[in-house]
C-alpha cells in the first residue's frame, strides 16, 4: 500500500512498517521504520528496557538501529539515496521488518506491561484538568 505522500507500508508477522524518501538539508534520504512497541508506562520498567535496547543495538549488524520516537520504540534505517544500489532498498526494508518481527513479542512480553495504574484525568467544565476521584473519596 502507498499513501498520498509516497510512503509504502509493509507487514511481516505482527510488525508493520513504512518506507519512503525524505529530504533534509537539500539531500534525499531513504528512510524505513517500524514500530516495536510503545514505551511502558511503568517507570520501573524503563531503565531495564533501555539497557536491553542498548545491548540489542550493539549486536545489530548493518545500518538498522533501535531508537525512541515520541513514546514508541522503533527500528529505523536512514541512508542517503545516492549511496544506495537498487537492491539496497529492499535490504533496508527487510532489515527493519525482520528485527522488529523478531523482537516485538519478546520485548512486549517482558516490558510491555505495567505494574502501576495511571491516574486518569477528566477535563472539567472550566477547561482545567482535575484528578478523577477513586471510589470512596
Explained architecture:
There is one protein chain. The chain is built from 2 helices and 7 strands. With 137 residues, it is an alpha+beta fold. Strand 1 and strand 2 form a beta hairpin. The longest helix is centred in the C-terminal third of the chain and has 24 residues, at 88-111.
- Strand proportion, as a percent range, falls in 25-35%
Query: Strand pairing plus helix content: what structural class?
Result: alpha+beta
The CATH C-level name is: Alpha Beta
Query: How is the main sheet built?
Result: 5 strands, antiparallel
CATH architecture descriptor text = 2-Layer Sandwich
Please tell me the overall pLDDT: 83
Oligomer: single chain
Tally the structural domains: 1
Rg calculated over all Cα atoms? 19 Å
Quick rundown:
The chain has 137 residues and is of the alpha+beta class. The chain is built from two helices and seven strands, in the order βββαββαββ. It has one domain (8-131): Yope Regulator, Chain: A (2-Layer Sandwich), CATH 3.30.1460.
Relevant terms:
137 residues; alpha+beta; Yope Regulator, Chain: A; 5-stranded antiparallel sheet; 2 helices; 7 strands; elongated
Topology, element by element:
Elements: E1 8-12, E2 15-24, E3 27-38, H1 43-59, E4 65-69, E5 72-80, H2 88-111, E6 121-123, E7 129-131
Antiparallel strand pairs: 1-2, 2-3, 3-5, 4-5, 6-7
Amino acid at each position: 500500500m502507498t499513501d498520498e505522500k509516497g510512503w509504502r507500508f509493509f507487514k511481516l508477522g505482527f510488525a508493520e512498517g513504512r518506507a519512503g524518501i525524505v529530504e533534509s538539508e537539500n539531500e534525499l534520504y531513504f528512510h524505513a521504520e517500524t514500530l516495536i512497541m510503545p514505551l511502558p508506562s511503568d517507570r520501573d520498567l524503563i531503565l531495564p528496557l533501555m539497557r536491553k535496547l542498548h545491548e540489542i543495538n550493539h549486536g545489530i549488524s548493518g545500518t538498522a538501529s533501535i531508537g525512541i520516537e515520541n513514546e514508541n520504540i522503533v527500528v529505523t534505517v536512514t541512508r542517503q539515496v545516492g549511496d544506495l544500489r537498487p537492491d539496497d532498498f529492499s535490504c533496508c526494508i527487510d532489515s527493519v521488518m525482520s528485527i522488529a518481527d523478531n523482537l516485538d513479542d519478546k520485548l512486549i512480553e517482558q516490558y510491555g506491561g505495567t505494574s502501576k495504574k495511571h491516574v486518569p484525568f477528566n477535563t472539567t467544565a472550566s477547561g482545567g484538568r482535575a484528578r478523577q476521584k477513586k471510589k470512596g473519596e
